[in-house]
Amino acid sequence: MFPLKRGRFVARLADAPADLQAAQALRHLTFRAMRGLGDIGTDESLDTDSFDAACQHMLVEETRTGVLVCCFRLLPLQGGAEIGRSYSAQYYDLDRLAAFTGPMMELGRFCIHPDWKDHDILRVAWGAMTQLVDEQGVELLFGCSSFDGAVASAHAEALAMLKDGHLAPKRWLPRVKAPNVFRFARALRGRKPDMKRAMLGMPPLLRTYLLMGGWVSDHAVVDRDLNTLHVFTGLEISAIPPARARALRAVAG
Q1: What structural domains and CATH numbers belong to the chain?
Q2: 43 — pLDDT class (breaks 50, 70, 90)
Q3: Measuring CA to CA, how many Å separate 106 from each of 23, 57, 73, 180, 183?
């Protein structure tokens, strides 16, 4: 049960309007202010959208000071029939996943405060996710994983690595929906990635997904508004290697 305390950090679910506003402020700092981008939402200091009201919001704070160091939101779905309600469905044709019968959860707006570099933050965040996944019987965790910068060539090594070993099973593979995409599985068909450079260029959240057996779409959506390139990412809970599952549950308690 929450709060989940590990070392210097504690993870808990937002339970008041002030908690949600703190998460929205951190999102604005991470996604917009630090990139020199314009404002979004109804308040110039907050990153807001219509999905916030339907989601659970997880906060990771430094125990001694209460400083918010990480946040993300989670949208629980009863099964694939509800996937059209998700944030990801705006950008990807997810009709194939409508056949997924088990409970699902969308992970979104994941961010870590740029001034905090402690690896335990990500560890505690995944521990908190694991606890919710287990409590709610989730069978598929999914979302959009973003690369910083919308120029596809800058991420070629990482995308080539995704193409070679991490594409979604055909039965779940998202189809193109967004107007501006980079079909990397096709464009990089003959390219062999430099694995060291590929891993260095892989976003930390996506890297963790892959280490647990996650998979991605065969194309990336170009988001000029946030200056990112993102791929649909899925993780079937039953596919997580047993040793990693045990390690995550040890953190989750």
Answers
A1: 4-252 (3.40.630.30)
A2: very low
A3: 17, 12, 8, 23, 23
